[in-house]
Amino acid sequence: MPLTIVTVPCLSDNYAYLAHDLATGATAVVDVPDAAPILNALAARGWHASHILITHHHDDHIHGLRALAAATGARVIGAAADAHRLPPLDEALAPGDVLRLGMEAGAVIDVSGHTIGHVAYHFPQSKAVFTADSLMALGCGRVFEGTPAQMWDSLSRLAALPPDTKVYPGHEYTAANARFALTIEPDNPDLISRSQAVQAARAAGRPTVPSTLAEELATNPFLRAGLPAVKASVGLPGAPDAEVFAEIRARKDRF
Question: pTM of whole model > 0.85?
């Protein structure tokens, strides 16, 4: 049985997630921007956090970690490469390691670029990937510590997952990302339709996540940097994919 996944809004535009295994009661919290809304969401469902999965070291993803761990006793799990700048870990994982959550096995994926040591957690049986600030809905994270080529490699690993995989990012940035995406592909009918749906969701106060990887492949300019039409739209016909990605990311940084 797939995991039950709950989106928990935190701070001004962050998301945490609860991933609950019905068979065993195991419940993972993915990132902890703030402990209070997560504890409230757990209590409302009668769930108890058994695992805390950390994607990267930025404060808006770990600010509530110590409080949540103290309140729940959950095992804190994160990347070994990031352990020196995370709160103490009970388990340090490397890319390729397998993470057990109840009856399901998850995979740890290196998605360095936004930060070095950033990881995503993929649960194939549940068709879910928690990407935080790597792949986002209609966007990707700013490249702070890695290089554009490194970020492109990371996004390419995520793009290779099954297209029906649901993508759970770390922020509600989709409306702004849609406005930018339309500057790259103003005539993309899938993007136009999705942008309208995003506007309607936000007007109604609904989250725009998760999306599916298929939606991202059809509309997200950062995943589409290898397409000839996108290369032409940014004036780089025939350029290497990573170079085109770097140009799109630079444009977004100035947007």
Answer: yes
89: tokens are 């870990």
Q: Is 255 exposed, middle or buried (0-12, 13-18, 19+ CB in 10 A)?
A: exposed
Q: Give the range of the structural domain holding residue 88, as residue numbers without chain letter.
A: 4-254
A 10 A CB-CB count for 200 gives 11
Give me the CATH number covering residue 42: 3.60.15.10
Please list the pLDDT of the chain residue by residue as tens digits (255 residues).
899 999 999 999 999 999 999 999 999 999 999 999 999 999 999 999 999 999 999 999 999 999 999 999 999 999 999 999 999 999 999 999 999 999 999 999 999 999 999 999 999 999 999 999 999 999 999 999 999 999 999 999 999 999 999 999 999 999 999 999 999 999 999 999 999 999 999 999 999 999 999 999 999 999 999 999 999 999 999 999 999 999 999 999 999
